[in-house]
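Recap for those who missed Tuesday's class. We walked through two folding examples back to back. For each one, the amino acid string is listed first and its predicted structure tokens come directly after. Nothing is annotated here on purpose, so try labeling regions yourself before you check the end of the notes.
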Amino acid sequence: MTQSEPTPQRTFRRMAERFRGYLPVVVDVETGGFDWNKHALLEIAAVPIDLDEQGRFVPGEVCSAHLVPAPGLQIDPKSLEITGIDLDHPFRLAKPEKEALDHVFAAVRAAVKKHDCQRAILVGHNAHFDLNFLNAAVARVAHKRNPFHPFSVFDTVTLAGVAYGQTVLARAMQAAGLQWNSADAHSAVYDAERTAELFCRIANQWGMPVGVTAADVGATNAEAVGKDAGATLAASDGSGETAPVGVPSWVAQDTGSPPSGG
């Protein structure tokens, strides 16, 4: 770039401006049962959501840990049959809860700092299940630097139900036109990475929030940020009515379903 060329202008909002200063971080846990007060936390994976060069949501780098079951907690053998976790596997390299949380939380805090956000907000499929196990582990080890909001979440069950009419993760992925391999499911890393893809697919499909215009992000015109992120969306029925900014065209047109492939 020569001195005479102007600096490229950013035409999208920073992550810190997207969700009131919160950074979405997809979390998946694998556990020894369903009760976070009595069953052990066995695996945790976190995928911070990032932005690409066009300002679209993309999954960031996953950070994960296997955990040593905390003393006094139970493991239901049926849960191990579902997850396929071998607690005695020589390459499991499990960490104590405090060390595992330190490892994952450090990566999350780094992502929060990168995007100038205030805090992370947990994204999950049945998100409160993951959050409850996470909060229980934080309480057990008296962790003082939990980067996540203590009770607010973004749940992809709700998002996928609205976007695709599906609430089961595997079916939602397929409805969104994304890959799913049942043989790899019930691994915290795999499920977190797939849930991150699903969240990004739905969030990108939606566009900018209602009330945000191209001028708000420094674009010179609506084309700079795309028709679905422009000031209005024309209805397809010829009525001349418009839809609010950020509402996908298939919603504005009241088609009842998203375009083929999500």
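Example two. Treat it independently of the first, because the proteins are unrelated.
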Amino acid sequence: MSLAAIIVIIFGLLAQAPTTFDLSADFSFRNNPNKVWQYGYSATNSLAPDQFRVDTESDRVDMQCDSTGSIGFWHPAANNGPGPGYYPYVAYNATKQSQVGCKGWAVRAGEVAMEASNTGQYSLVRFVAPVAGTYKVSVQFEGVHFGLSTTDVHVLHNGTSLFDADIDGYGGDPAFHKVEGANPTASYSGQVELKANDTVTLAVGYGKDKTNSGDTTGLFARVVLLAGTPGRVSQLWWIPTSASTMPSAGTTLLNSATARSGRIGTASELRGGPVAAFHCFCQTLSPP
């Protein structure tokens, strides 16, 4: 696709309106990585960045846990239920009401549920910054197992810890179990300066008792790009005038309306109607 054939329409400037990346609203059982989000686990019991592995097995319906399809899972590998390839997992309640998973835990609408392995591997969700800038990170962990979750939870910028806490108790939907325990919830909120491709990792471990029994832990997370640097960061829509392939990160686009160029940070294809539209977060290369 030639640059001259691209029509770029400015959808909004992030410098004026912050852009929100919401783990629940963005969750996918089809794609991993999923735009700025990655679902995975640690290869060992270390939170070092090089230990991160992407989950490869997506079970939209886990017959061992929830045959209705209300709760889906990402697993490290193909499996036959709890055992090799099953843990650590990242699960998600795709419905608009709380659901019971595996008869032993409950997740709220749109909540992610995580559980480590019994050998200490962490369940991980990772955010990858599309562009450099100031981001506000808001995270809420809560024990959701009726047997009272006992886990360790963490927020890291690359390999540096931003937040560490222990979950001890049930802090989920009280309609299913009373809220109890010494520390049933833990939350973090803070501003972080991120470079493009920096990571914010959200981790759930097996806790001080070193077993993952009854450890399911819920997660809500939101990352907001407050300001991009340098120059402006624009959220753009563009429609190719002819058939084309998905532009890749790093591609330079020309905004015909302003004669300014921008480089793609992340891109995704949307289809609705007779033509395909593409969406990206673009760092401007020429001055405003």
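Answers for example two:
The first helix runs from residue 23 to 26.
The two ends are 26 Å apart (CA to CA).
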